[in-house]
Design brief:
The structure is a single chain. By secondary structure, this protein is an alpha+beta fold. The longest helix has 52 residues.
Length: 253
Amino acid sequence: MMKKVLKIAGSCAALAVIILLQLSFATAKKEATIKTAKAYNAVAAPVTAAVNKYAGLYDSLHLGIAGLSKAAFDNAVEGYNHLLAQGKIKNDGVLSIVDFTLPSSVKRLFVIDMKNAAVLFNTYVSHGRNSGKLMANEFSNDINSFKSSLGFYLTSNTYKGKHGYSLKLEGEEQGINDNALSRGIVMHCAPYVTENFIKNQGYVGRSEGCPAVPPNMYKPIIEKIKDGSCLFMYSADKYYLSHSTILNSTDAA
């Protein structure tokens, strides 16, 4: 009888040890999971907070009604936050978006005041002559392609060239728009970017790849966005969306 009792007691003790070990393992696993989650959130939180900061801007500024696609805005904000986090944007008060999902006959350049939540400019903008007629459908980073290049740019300094007062643009995406300076891609005015031209032709005239803007608006636009602001040229182009180094970076996801 005593042997049987001792045997049962031994079994209970062993079972208790197993249960304690399992509880200890589960607790350690839970703590490790929490620790990992905290570490991830510590990195992800600043980006998430930055995205959330502008989440209501699209609706409050009625950008959808004005024609700007939600995808263009969301991607623009992601890239803006990415470049901001890298310290590349010096003029962080404005974000400029060219939405190439829209025809050139509508106002598809949006200059947004990110600090005061306001649309500063909404006007016409050209695309490269080899990118398409009414719609920009083809894009290139090649010299002499005379096509527009998608992606994120930083505005640089101004100068006086063959188109008058102009703004240099620096492409920030390797293989996508980083030939902008060598291609002479700048923002300038053009007489073919007017409502009269649209009435006669059905679309604005096309450039050699530059985002040309109306003669009556180019000066205030350039003055506002020059010296290190973010400019984003968007299209629902599969190649660009899958190869963008900025949109596919971990801190812009």
